[in-house]
Amino acid sequence: MPASKIAVIGSIKASEFHRVKRLCQKLAQYLVIQVEAVAPMEYLEKLDLIKQDMKSLVPKLFPGVAVQFYSASGKLARVLSCAGFIEWIQREHGADDLKGSDLGVEEDQMEAELLRLGQSAFDDFVAARKHTVVHLAFQINESDVGTMVFELYNDVAPQTVAHFVSFVNSSAINPSDPGSTLGYKNGAVNRIIHEGWFQAGEFLDSRNTPIYGQLLPDENFIVPHAHRGNISFVNKGPHSNYSQFMVTQRPMPYFDRKFVCFGRCLDGDDVLQAIDETETRFEKPCATIRISNASVFCEGVAPEVSAVLPTFF
């Protein structure tokens, strides 16, 4: 029985998604297919939602894209991966797979071109969200494990985001040596709670004593810890935020209204997983995990003074 509706959901950065998207364009003359692009971390959440409707779905078998077929009654009938979709269009419609010439490149350059398209589309995608976006690259025992891309809600918590960004771009004044600055680059991950969160951003002086400058008040608790990859400041009670931050491994509603959440990870699930899988002793990582680079990808658009804050709860 032919599908009543076909919907494609995919990670805007994934080569598989751009392959399927191009194939859908080639089939547009006789098939109506809804195509939705989301951030890589958001795509993983979408897969979890699809699994609620199709219990047999194994998320890891759908890298980058999932093609959903719905029956006339609106029920999800089946889900295909990129490879499965290519087989389906060849069998059902006699359509060819994507070729290098479709992208204006040689055949052996097609995968590289799809990856380039994915990265370019992702960069445009995050910039269009009008939030501040930062990159934190990580190393474990001096081996690169990847970069986490964080979207920071400068429209919801502008003071908190500006404070965090001052450490990202190493412009925060060092209170123990006003002639120098502090920055997250080369800083360590100092605490890991497996399947909970990890902490980083602590600064120590020559006596191994934590460095604290002027503490940042709790700006608000508008953003809940509702996602894997939420980022918030660590505190020691109300209005005691400084430089230490944490990134959640899963939704942590217990943290809501206790810690100021000001963003979430859009890309870098593999990095988050690698950190969580690092062996620990008394919550301290046994390996050396450090932020090898920290940078601001784009500044967010400043909200209007009279703008109504978005509601996340």
Q: Class by helix and strand content?
A: alpha+beta
| Strand adjacency order, main sheet | 9-10-12-11-13-6-5-16
Tally the beta strands. Answer: 16
Topology as H/E string? Answer: EHEHEEHHHEEHEEEEEEEHEEE
Q: What count of helical segments does DSSP give? A: 7
Radius of gyration: 22 Å
Determine the N-to-C terminus distance: 41 Å
Percent range of helical residues: 25-40%
Residue stretches low in confidence (pLDDT < 50, at least 5 long) are none
**Strand residue content:** 25-35%
- The backbone outline, from C-alpha atoms, is elongated
Q: Biggest β-sheet, characterized?
A: 8 strands, antiparallel
Mean pLDDT: 92
Notes on the protein architecture:
The protein is α+β, with helices and mostly antiparallel strands and 313 residues long. The protein has seven helices and 16 strands. The protein has helices spanning 15-26, 40-53, 82-93, 100-103, 110-128, 158-168, 269-276; strands at 5-11, 33-38, 65-70, 76-80, 132-140, 143-152, 172-173, 181-182, 189-193, 197-200, 230-233, 245-248, 261-267, 280-281, 284-285, 289-298. The strands form four sheets. The protein has an eight-stranded antiparallel sheet with strand order 9-10-12-11-13-6-5-16. A four-stranded mixed sheet has the order 2-1-3-4, sandwiched between helices. A hairpin with a 2-residue loop joins strand 5 (132-140) and strand 6 (143-152). Helix 1 (15-26) crosses helix 5 (110-128). It starts with a strand and ends in a 15-residue tail after the last strand. The mean pLDDT is 92.
